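Still learning folds. Look over my entry:

…
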Amino acid sequence: MKLARTFGLVLVTAAIAAALLGATSASASTQCKANESPCSEGNTYAKGTETSLEVEEGKTAVFKNSFIEIVCTASSIRGTISANPGASGEVIGTITSWTFKSCTIAGSGAACSPVETSGLSHSTHGIATGGGNGTEYVGPGIGTPGFRFGVGGTCGLVTSCSITANEAQPPSSTNNSLKATYTGSATAPTLAFNQAAQTGTFFCGGAGWRFTATYRQNSPKPEFLVP
């Protein structure tokens, strides 16, 4: 009887360990050349792979609150894959460049220059959600992710303004971050932001800012975010 109980305990322990192992494996995310789970070694993008994204043709990057709307017809993101997957189970990357060009004030058409990204370089955290898609968090680098308008120039504002992310904390960070929806594809993966932001400056309109933009990924592709 004692042997049977011991054997039963071993089986239960093994089942629990297998369940935990399965949960751990399922929680890991990988940037993959194919929409397959798990991603095979041959289809897993290597550390150091360069990433390049541009605002989709015919679309814009927009910064908006109840006071002003800044529209940029050109924007690009450059970076690299740092770990695929990382120790935390997320795909970790680094954004080294995030630029905005051809920016104007909606309505008046007045030029708004420069529009800059603050806090670079940023870390990115990719988490698979199924179907080759996922959620991408842009977390802190040198500082909290944010944007600046009219620094040393003009954007039709009383003063130059800075806005920063104020929500969407990734699992591996206690700091504010930007959040985007990643859609995997064999030909045109996309990254779509619809993110609330904040500023403490009264003349910049205070709270209520929102950043929206959809980027087309030029490289690498094909690409899917898989568990």
